[in-house]
Amino acid sequence: MKIVAKKAAALMVAATLGATSLPFAVLNVQAAPASSHNGISAAASKLSDKEIQEAVEVLAGLGVLQGYADHSMGVNNPINRAELAKMVVLTFKLQSTEENTAPFTDVNSNVWYYKYASVLVGLGIMETEDGKFSPNKTVTDEEIVQVVSKALKRDVLSVNYWANKLQSTSGPVTRGETAALLNTARKAMPSDKAQITSVKSINEITLIVTLDAPLTAEDEVFAKAKEDFVFNDGLTLTNMPRLKSGSVATYIVPTSVQKAGTTYNLTYKGKNAGSFVGNAAKVDMTATTQVTNDTFEIEALKTNGVIDYGYVISAYSGGRGANAFVLDENNRANGITYQIIPSMQGRQVTITPEGGESIVAKYVPFTQSTDGKIEPKFRLPEGQVLKAGVKYTVTSDWANISNPSFEAKEIAPLQISGAEAVSDTSINVSLAQDPGDELFSGRSVQLTAPNGDKWVATYKFSSRKGAVGVFDITDSGKLAAGTVYTVTPLGAWATSQATFTSK
User: Fold this and answer.
1) Could you read off the pLDDT of 314-326 as tens digits, one per residue?
2) N or C: lower Cβ tally within 10 Å for the chain?
3) How far apart are CA 492 and CA 189, in angstroms?
């Protein structure tokens, strides 16, 4: 992430700051010429003079970045761990307590950087090796991304995206690069006073909302967000807003179905936050497929330019591995503009048997994008099943489905092969084979003790690992130690029984 600034940057910063704006150490921003020791030309840098200037001005003004005794800022000097510790603590206003300070075997408590290093190591933001902080060790790309991610409590994917915008070649991270990255990251600090700066609709059920700062965790909670985001004409929030990976404060916001051409006004926390016109664009889905006797899925394809929000939001990026990626401010990546499927929470579709009455099927929670595929599942009302040999057609007010019909077939239920206690309130339920998909979702089992006591346990969403899923006991129930329980599926989703002895 080696960035080499032009000499012009130093002149611009000095001229802009003026002799009385900041301490003398800030005024001489030394930038290496194109033929510097590292051999990287200024043209290779992705970091503009303006970005260097802005970062230096802002962080110097905040007291985060300070100069050397020779009055230079040393923006092209490799940053060491001691300098990074101070800049990170001051940028994010991190504080120490007796519980989160850390001692070192190679650092005297009287040195200028001790308190900063101690705070970061105590908080788990920076690491030591055998008690050594290694203050003079230069910082790598990977280390600075990890440090900033932990300090900001932001996903690694986003911080890496910001860092890559600065990158021109490998090598130690410079002070200038660090300033630029921290200047971006500090804007991503959540605020309970965040206000909306823009709102636009990208399809019938999805808004892109940008704020001047990210929301706090409390303000993101669905119940709170639903109170704060208020629309006219019956439009409502259908789930919590989700921060886009790679953005500073831009959110994917799911709504009920918008009326095309209707002008909607958005009020946020009682203040007018802008307006937008209801979108006529439906989400492009490809096909419907039966997955169990009462459940079917609707598929979308990334290759067709459709992506589920789970792959492009900060909250989920850590668990999506290589499937997670960043969309820019225009929802583009690798030259493709993507449609975004927002949260399906509360969504429903209509499924109609040939020659029969239509049935409303509801979304099965946490089945939007499992196993690297985009395929939200929908389930018939309790007790109803798809009849083998009958053709069904799925319609929706929020999606265009290229192949909306399928012929139902008899699908064998899942087979329970075993169970074991995880704790006094949870059990593992094992199937005879890995279903390869989230087919536990929304299912329950009954636990019966020899004395007739019975408990219901429901599947813990997204807990499946292969053929095993976690089921939590409802109604504050607890297993009695040393008791043998019989596990029976509730409903026709599975067959067989299993027994286990509680711990």
Assistant:
1) 999 998 989 999 9
2) C
3) 49
Tokens 């001790």 sit on residue: 114
Give CA–CA dist 52/70, Å, rounded.
20
User: In the 3-class helix/strand/coil scheme, how is 103-159 assigned residue by residue?
Assistant: CCCCCCCCCCCHHHHHHHHHCCCCCCECCECCCCCECCHHHHHHHHHHHHCCCHHHH
Contact of 397 with 257, CB cutoff 8 Å: yes
The pLDDT of residue 41: 26
- How sure is the predictor about 34, in pLDDT bands with cuts at 50, 70 and 90? very low
Return the DSSP state at 450. T
Strands of the sheet containing 250-254, edge to edge, are: 196-203, 206-211, 250-254, 242-243
How far, in Å, CA of 218 to CA of 216, rounded? Answer: 5
- As given in the structure block, the two tokens for residue 80 are 């060491």
pLDDT, residue 370, reads: 79
Give CA–CA dist 306/130, Å, rounded.
48
Report the alpha-carbon distance of residue 274 to residue 175 in Å, rounded.
39
Q: CA-to-CA distance for 390 and 195, rounded, in angstroms?
A: 52
The tokens for 16 are 């802009």
Q: What is the number of alpha carbons within 13 Å of residue 398 lying toward its C-beta?
A: 22
Q: Provide the 3-class DSSP secondary structure of residue 485.
A: strand
Q: Are strands 336-337 and 444-448 parallel, antiparallel or unpaired?
A: unpaired
Question: For residue 372, what pLDDT is reported?
Answer: 82
Q: C-alpha angle 169/173/179, rounded to 5°?
A: 115
pLDDT of residue 232 exceeding 80: yes
HEC-encoded secondary structure of 258-312: CCCCCEEEEEECCEEEEEEECCCCCEEEEEEEECCCCEEEEEECHHHCEEEHHHC
Q: What are the DSSP E strand ranges found in 204-262?
A: 206-211, 229-231, 242-243, 250-254
The mean pLDDT of 464-484, rounded to a whole number, is: 96
